[in-house]
Amino acid sequence: MNILVINCGSSSLKYQLIDSDSKDVLAKGLCERIGIEGSQITHTPKGGEKKTEQIPMPDHVAAVDAVLAKLTDATVGVVTSLDQIDAVGHRIVHGGEKFASSVVITDEVIKAIEEVSDLAPLHNPANLIGIRSCQKLMPGVPMVAVFDTAFHQTMPKKAYLYGLPYEYYEKYKVRRYGFHGTSHDYVSGRIAQILGKKREDLKIIVCHLGNGASVSAVMNGECVDTSMGLTPLEGLIMGTRCGDIDPAVIGFLAQKEGKTAEEMIDICNKKSGVLGLSGGVSSDFRDLAAAEESGNELASTALSAWSYRVAKYIGAYTAAMNGVDVIVFTAGVGENNITARAEIMSYLGYLGVTVNEDANCVRGEEVEISTADSNVKVWVVPTDEEMAIAEQTAALV
Ligand code: ADP
Known about the structure:
By secondary structure, this protein is an alpha/beta fold. It is built from 14 helices and 14 strands. The site of adenosine-5'-diphosphate (ADP) has 13 residues, from helix 10 and helix 12.
């Protein structure tokens, strides 16, 4: 089955056309600056060249139209007609408490996604525009919504409730939801497969370390805790997000700096994390490593604070599960940053983790990076959220 996977943001749209049977990525690409001057599409057909072209895209319908034109183009296309696209899988950021798994999109599903939009005001409306644009241009093609929050819906109340008056949970559904669920689900499933065990029989900690980053604890085959919260701001120190802080900091700084709560949250989301901690060096770990190398102390501090936080979460989730069998690193930094992985593992001696330093030199591959006699196994497993979305879409339609 050919599945078009769509990840639609407010001014961008990422896509992949995947053959869910052969697991082939037939084409992938990105539309940028939708609705702004200078919009462009970058398209890469399988085995072909990556090409960027300026195309006017005043709205998302125009963007989806441009994507479909590329996919069916006589030279850079990969299918001859739209009939060869069997279904569309949409990445939806927030499913609230309504969605614990992926669903076929119906009018009721769209309404329910709208209803939880105030929990993700930057993301869900953009995701919905992506659904509507596809429905307009591909009428009758089945579509599936795959939620970032769904995998975490199995968390028990003790893990998802905040220590706030209970009425806020009842009235507004303020609680921990967690994100990157498709990745945590895929990676925890994949590691069980690699180890030749059932996921149900393993205690797994997944460290999804990208620009956005989160850790999850998976036990009895289900997510029992995760570090992101009501929004993706909580938990680890990230590229530009602060992660856990004392909530009183917001009020304190708002007063000192004459800012509104909204402006403070914006700073916590976009100007904090390793970018902010390093005094503005970069949110990108390659730049930070280069700066550290050339003696930049703040870059070094930012990287230490970042790995320390990951190590603390691993400790917390080991306690939550009363043990851990396997720790998995994934996403941009987790898959590629050898030094960051080594630094995190340097905290795990108490668990009996011993590092295989040669194996840890690998980037972007499935590899065991602990030694054969390590008490807890540590692995790198590259995530593939698009493939997971395509598989779930194919299964549902
Ligand atoms: P997101 O999907 O949240 O935007 P990614 O998972 O793509 O983030 O991760 C981006 C991060 O991965 C960047 O900080 C980047 O430095 C890091 N990264 C990607 N490739 C490499 C590499 N080869 N070596 C070190 N770090 C890398």
